Amino acid sequence: MVAEMTNNNMESKPGEQPNGVYTILTKIQFDHWVIIGAAPICSLMSHSHSDHHPELCSVYHDPIIASTRQVEQGRVHTINLPVASDSYQKYGGMYFWNLDKIRIKAQAQLKLKKFHTDWWYITDGDVGVLFIGDLDLQEIPVIEETVNYIMKVAQRPLNAVLLPSYGGIKGTHGVLVDADPQLLSREVAKLVKKLKEKGLRVGGLPHPIRAPWSDFDFQRLHQKT
Fold first, then answer.
1. H-type helices in the chain, by residue range?
2. Virtual CA dihedral for 55, 59, 61, 65, nearest 10 degrees?
3. Distance between CA atoms of 81 and 120, rounded to whole angstroms?
4. Which of 145, 170, 185, 194 could tie 166 with a disulfide, CB 3.0–4.6 Å?
5. What is the dihedral of CA 30, 20, 86, 118, to 10 degrees?
6. How distant, in Å, are the alpha carbons of 33, 76, 84, 220 from that of 36?
7. What values do phi and psi take at 188, rounded to 5?
8. Which architecture does CATH list for 21-220?
9. Contact 31/53 with Cβ under 8 angstroms?
10. Cα–Cα distances in Å, from 206 out to 112, 124, 173?
11. Tens digit of each residue's pLDDT (9 = 90 or more) over 134-185
C-alpha cells in the first residue's frame, strides 16, 4: 500500500493538543527499548544490528513491525508485519508509516546516499510519534526538516520524537576517528533543544547512556547472549 501522508485515509485530526502520547509509547517496544510501565502489544524495528533487532532481545513482543526490505532480506523470522517504503500498516489502533520520500526530500541539499536506519512515524489519529532508533552525524539536519514536513506540510499530529542518546563515540556514526568523541552527543542535544522549542517532547533512548534531556524514562531490555 503506497500512500501520501497528505491523504485523508488515516482518520487523523491535525492540530489536536497532545493528550495521549503515553498511550502510543506504552504499546510499543522500540527496538530494545521500552518506556517504564509499558505493556507492549508489538515491537517496532529500526534496523537489524544486534543491539537493535527485537528478535535478539531477551524479551520481545509479536508482531515485529519492520520494513519490507528487512523482511525480504530474511532479517525478521518471527511473526511480522512488513511495511513498504512510504506506506503504512495499521495495528492495535495505530498507523505505522515507513518514511522514505519525506526524508529524501529533506536531505536533497545534503546529498546523503543512505540512512543508518528506517524512520517511523506512528499515530493513532490524535497524537503522533517519530521514532529514529539510530543515526549518523550527517542525518541530524534531516530530522528537523522531517519534523517540519510532518507538522506543516502533511499537517499530521506530532507530539514526541524518540532519539538515541550517545556517550563518547568516534570512528563510527559519521564521526571521524580524530574528532571530539562528544561531537555526536552534543549535536543531538542541540537538535533536542530545537525540537522542544517547537513544543515537542523528546524521548532519549539509552544508547548506551541515559540522556539528561529526555522527557520520558526509557530502559533498554537485555540482549540475548
1. 21-27, 68-72, 101-106, 140-148, 183-197
2. -30
3. 14
4. 185
5. -20
6. 9, 26, 30, 10
7. -65, -40
8. 4-Layer Sandwich (3.60)
9. yes
10. 26, 25, 16
11. 998 888 988 998 999 899 888 899 999 999 998 767 656 565 567 676 789 9
